[in-house]
Amino acid sequence: MNPDFKPEITVVIPIYNEQAGLQSLFDRLYPALDKLGTTYEIVFVNDGSRDNSVSFLAEQFRLRPDVTRVVLFNGNYGQHMAILAGFEASRGDIMITLDADLQNPPEEIGNLVAKIREGYDYVGSIRRKRQDSAWRTYASKAMNQVREKITNIKITDQGNMLRAYGRNVIDLVNQCGEVNTFVPALAYRFARKPTEIIVEHEERAAGESKYSLYSLIRLNFDLVTGFSLVPLQFFSMFGILLSLASGLLVFVLLVRRLFLGAEAEGLFTLFAIAFFFMGTILFGIGLLGEYVGRIFQQVRARPRYVVQTILEQKPGQSLDLPAGVEKRTVGRGHD
Ligand code: UDP
Ligand code: MG
């Protein structure tokens, strides 16, 4: 693809160990985009896959070099960093993000694009019926409500990555150097005219979710700490209330001591209260740590991700792959 060529649409797809489903993704994605009858490019960002994904991507690049670009990271930096790298490499006016696992049907891209053409610069999406495990769906709903209350970001369905952004939003996102972030929320911040549409959601086509419970908790902390100070303020408020209440308790105990004499009842109630507060204090310290740790990562100012290579067609260049990018070899096993 000629680097000066500016397509109307850029589709950004993060890839992490998705070899099992990539072929079916290509089989649906390219026809869906071709059908739109406009210019487009697809930017795949390989987030340090340890399986054969890179070979599939390289092969696909060879087949459709006119509309395909592949950004290769040198390691795993997470889905949101991969999307940001895709944004930086993108040239389209309308940016679409999509998961690689076909949970977001590529056929919906046309509807997102139509909304952007109507003049919106952020099109979120709400899954008509979410096809994930029950606990994920439930926990995600609960988190959605917490986020809605403590940040001023209005996203109905935060977990869904099938979204469209206008160029004005992406240019601003590209100026941010945030290390731990949540792309839809960051982009929402910069949107002048956001809207949402309802989309289909499918079960993962192949492979399994790349998010463990631990990484989901981390991601939600990124979202909350990145966009709100309310959790910290909540602890300050709670501390103030607690100091007032314990002052009152001291006063009551003092009065009882003077009028009723020494008492030592209710020992276990005291334990229960003490443990509850110890738990609360530990949680508070942990929460502080989440913010401080992120500040630390940010001030170290290391590169957020390292791009090893970008596979793209340059004018007059043959399509030989750069050294280090393996060709697909039959029978090569998983790592
Ligand atoms: N992904 C990524 N890096 C990671 C984890 C995930 O690029 O460290 C990609 C993954 O390949 C997929 C998308 O992010 O395209 C969403 O991941 P997944 O489908 O596993 O998440 P879920 O649908 O379970 O939330
Ligand atoms: Mg998925």
From TrEMBL:
Its EC number is 2.4.-.-, 2.4.2.53. It is an enzyme of class 2 (transferase). One of its GO terms (cellular component) is plasma membrane. One of its GO terms (biological process) is lipopolysaccharide biosynthetic process. Keywords: Glycosyltransferase, Lipopolysaccharide biosynthesis, Membrane, Transferase, Transmembrane, Transmembrane helix. The chain crosses the membrane at residues 234-255, 267-288. Residues 10-158 form the Glycosyltransferase 2-like domain. GO terms for molecular function: undecaprenyl-phosphate 4-deoxy-4-formamido-L-arabinose transferase activity. CDD domains: DPM1_like_bac (cd04187). This is Glycosyltransferase.
